[in-house]
Structure formats: C-alpha cells, structure tokens
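User: Can you model how S-adenosylmethionine sits in this protein?
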Amino acid sequence: MSFITNITRTWLTRTPKPFLFTNEYDQMLPFTELENLGLYVHIPFCKSICKFCPYCKEIYTKEKCDTYIDALLNEIQIVGSRLKYKKRVTSLYFGGGTPALAADRLGEIISVLKRYFIITEGIGAELHPENVTVSTLQTLKDAGITKISIGIQSFQPKYQKILGRKTVDTEKIAQVLEQIPFETVSMDFIFALPQQTFADLKNDIDIAFSHGANHIAVYPFIDFTFTESRVPAMAKKEKRSLLDSITEYCSKKGYHRDSIWTFSNTKGAKYSSMTRDHFLGFGCSATTLLKDSFKINTFSVEEYCKRIESRKLPTSLTIRFTKYQRMVYYLFWTAYSTKVDSRDFERFFDIPLQKAYGFELLIAKMLGFITEKDGVYTMTKKGAFYYHYYENFYTLAYIDKMWSVMRKEAFPKEIQL
Ligand SMILES: C[S@@+](CC[C@H](N)C(=O)[O-])C[C@H]1O[C@@H](n2cnc3c(N)ncnc32)[C@H](O)[C@@H]1O
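Assistant: Here's the modeled complex, given as structure tokens:
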C-alpha cells in the first residue's frame, strides 16, 4: 500500500523527504492574511457508534457535549482575537460526529464566530436521519444554518443492516424537509457494499431527489484498519463499473457533478468543506490548511478541553510543506472538484502549472485521465475512477496511519508519512 504512495510522493514532490508532522509549531497559526478561507467546527458526539465510521467521536451525553462546547467557544476566542479586524471567510461547516445533537448550541457558536468573521457563502451542518424532525430543523434554521447533510448511507434495509444502522423513515424525512426547507439538502450514501448493484444505487438516488434532497454524496466504502467493521471490499472491476454507471445515470438525468462523489439537481446547491485554498478548523480532530502548513488538533476530548483551559491552541501536529508538497496537496484536493484551473494554480504559487507539472499533465492527457480547454483541466470518467482508486491508497497510507496514532495518543511527538 505505502509502496505506491511512497513512489508517487517522491515523484510528485521531487524529493524522497516524507511528509513530516511534528509538535514543534503547535502554537503557530498564520491565518490572518489569507484569502479564500473556510471555517470548520467539529462536534465529536453521536447517539450510537457506527462500527464502520473512522471519524473522531464519542457517545453523546448532554453534560460532556456542553463542557466541550464551552471549550470550543473559548478556542474560537483564542484564535479570533489574533485578528485586528473582522475577516471575510467563505463558508462554515459543522461536521462530526453528529453536530445536530448540539442543535440548541450551534447558534451560540455561530454568533461567537461572527464576532471575528464575516461568513459569505452559507453555513452547513451534518445530521443523522434520526435528527430530521421539525423541531431540530427549525432550531438549525433559527441558528443560521443554510445547508444540511443527512447521513442516509442507504435507503435499503439490507445495506442499513450491513452497516449496523436502523431503517430510515423516508416519508417522514420528506414531510419534514417540505415543512422546513434549506438552500442545500444533501444526502450521504455509501457504495461498493457487498453485492450492491447499480439498481440499488439508482433507487437510492431517485428516492433522495424525490424526497427533499437537491444534492447527494455517494462515497465509496473505505475499510479503515482501526474500525471494527467487517464489511468485505468489492473487487476493483465491479467498483469501477458501479461508479461509471452512477456517473452516467446522473449525467443523463442532467445532475451537475460538483466533485468526484457529489451531484446536484439544482444550480447553487453545494456541500463541501474540503475544496478551498485554506481552512481553519476548530474542535477535536479538526484540521487547518494554511499557505504552507497543515495542522491537526488533538483527538482527545479531555485533552482538548485541558489545552483550551490553559489558553493554548489544541494543535497536536503540524506539517510545514515544501513548495512541491504544497503543490501536490493543492492539486490533490482541487482535483477532487474534477477541475483544475491553471490560472488559479499560478495565482496561488506564482509559477505556471505547465512549468511545475507539464510532463505529468501530458501523461495524464495521453492516458485519457484529463482533457484541457483554455487552461482548465477536467477529469474524464476514467480519470475520476483512477483518482478514486488512488485515493483509497492515500486514505489507507496517510489518513488511516495518522488517525490510528492520533486515536491512541493525544499529543504524539511526530509522525512521518
Ligand atoms: C460524520 S458522518 C455523517 C453524520 C451522522 N453522524 C451520521 O452518521 O449520519 C459523515 C459521512 O461519512 C461517510 N462515511 C463514514 N464512514 C465511512 C466509510 N468507512 N467509508 C466511506 N464513507 C464513510 C458516511 O456517508 C457519513 O454520512
């Protein structure tokens, strides 16, 4: 696994140097001058724990969640007070865990953030299907949430069972969504589950768009080594044919693909916290991407609260990118939107994309992974599959490895990837 990522990393970053994350820069946060900055807030609590889910979370209790949110408000103040004036940011996303469990306190978090930031592109929050009730949705709306993402996973009991989740009450969800509309209503699905067919997924997509969603995310199942799930992996050929069929079906229906895994039936319906130049993350396990560094907060709720109590940033590890490492990071995440505009790249790095990666782009074109028009590179269906295929290696060699350590150690000294 790491053989493939080591070779591509050495090739594309032009150095055998690994990605080195250390605890040396844990109180540094040079974000005040950055443009195109998004905000992310992590709420690490769920009513029950899904065995397949890798994210940082614990069982919800009101008391624990309230203590955590009190610390979160302080973290925002510690970071925000570094600003001399209110800063314009793009969007704000609440992820988890299940942020909707803290619906009654999201308004408070938003108003503290608004003391320091001007949010220009809306506010999103994740929900478990059980949270889709009139009262919770009304609370979210009153708090200023404009986009919601519901973790459906599958509408079919067979796959819900495989994932250890309860059956979703589709009609009830549709009724509630009709009563309390949002600018974006996204539904998450997982594909490549055992014996899952295109007919199963087509059914899920149709139900989503006819029951209140205007945006869907169809993620491939990833079997993280530290999760307890025992869902067998689907073969590469089968997976490719499923992804191709989903893409063809959505494009035939006229749905817009705004990233590798997401489609919408309405112009302007968007839900993505990843595809932006920079982001600031608050809370446990939240990550922050800056001009030439990336940091990750501690995964321990307890240690997080302690750090904040001593008025210190809860950063666990930071990487200071070399120029090429940052370029690779930029291209990997921008490609996630299926398009890379060479002008944006040049504006960001002050070097033409052709000069940095002309040879690689030529090969990608020859292999039929990308097409180019007016300096914009667009991923083909084949390219999207191989991106996905590579992303699986990336996830297991980097994210899985890092999260395995972070789950056990609140503040490791260093990690090399
Ligand atoms: C934090 S959860 C969503 C909100 C809520 N906690 C829930 O369970 O419905 C984020 C999304 O990540 C996706 N996800 C979680 N584990 C995954 C895995 N092992 N492979 C692929 N996608 C996964 C799911 O689609 C899930 O809805």
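A couple of observations from the model: Residues 19-264 form a domain with the TIM Barrel fold (CATH 3.20.20.70). The CA atoms of residues 129 and 169 lie 8 Å apart.
User: Helpful, thanks.
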